[in-house]
Amino acid sequence: xxPEIAMRHLEAxxxxxxxxxxxxxxGTTLKIACMKGCKGVGFDVDPxxxxxxxxxxxxxQIQRVIHIATDLLQKAYDISEIPVLNWIDxxxxxxxxxxFWFAEKQLTDLKxxxxxxxxxxxxxxxxxxxxxxxxIVTKNRGASLGRDISHSRPHKVSxxxxxxxxxxxYKSVLQVCKALEANPGTGLSTIKAGNAKRMESxxxxxxxxxxxxxxxxxxxxYFRGHRLSLVWLGYSLPALxxxxxxxxxxxxxxxxxxxETLLLDLYRGVENLEKLKPQMQKVLSRYAVDLYDISRxxxxxxxxxxxxxxxxxxxxxxxxxISNTLIFKNAARLAGLRFINVEERPILASKRYLPPPxxxxxxxFDKRMKSEAIMxxxxx
Length: 380
Known about the structure:
By secondary structure, the chain is α/β, with parallel strands linked by helices. Among the domains are: 119 residues, no CATH class; 131 residues, no CATH class. The protein contains 15 helices and 11 strands. Helix 3 crosses helix 8 and helix 4 runs antiparallel to helix 9. The protein is globular, with a radius of gyration of 21 Å.
């Protein structure tokens, strides 16, 4: 969620309103909503999104974080034997994964950090987890042997690495602390693991405003990059695969046959469907039904008169336009939401957290997605 979008659309939301972002990403919507005095509620299935959002939205004692980090590093330097991490060392697939992506020196140091961080119960310990993630999920050089990890396009570029994990980790802690000191959390947000399609913990008619951005079809699968860090934060590859299966916008077939009648309603006015490749048709059907399930939950939890602002983009497959925005409009209408208005804005290569313009991957992305729509709906 671009901060300027959130700031502009949340201007009219009254203080003390309950603002929901059920696909919260890094927690920008909740951060801005709570700075205005609103109460924030956020869900995500990605553990990295939940971690970053909690740290970004929770007050922390900066000096205590630095003290904990200093003490932890001293212990890490003193460890002589490589610790056992059960979620890694008891799973062959995860073992092979870390040995593919990390050279031995960095792997050993990350194991030490991971073990020590896993023993911490202090509320500020999440800051250290974010700091460790920042030296792994990078655009360029980092603790792994890969590049473009933060773009969710990780590729291995070497078999050797001279990256110094411990000192770079400490630098990362200081950088995170500096950002948190400049923009302290309010503590007004409730952030939980959860699926936007099934928000059982939220009562009916309990939300004043929803602002979110569903994953864009054929765009970025953040789990691909985040797993390089999450394996050091207590998650095996099978566990991450189970979480990823709940994500929206996956390039995968539906789990069960979809209602043809429902799909016809969701596809009303959408062109090029019959020209898409069979695999993409199946992927799109899953995505369309996911958008419908999200819309029904929006309608259920919104108060009468409550609004939902959704940032979404159309995409391209083999040069053919896929109107995801029209599918969402149809889904919202079927769920009982009234369409209010839409704004269009270009997706600027220089602004997005995606492959840089000079990168071939970015050029491919530009062929798949060119602009995004900011759509607002109301529950009658």
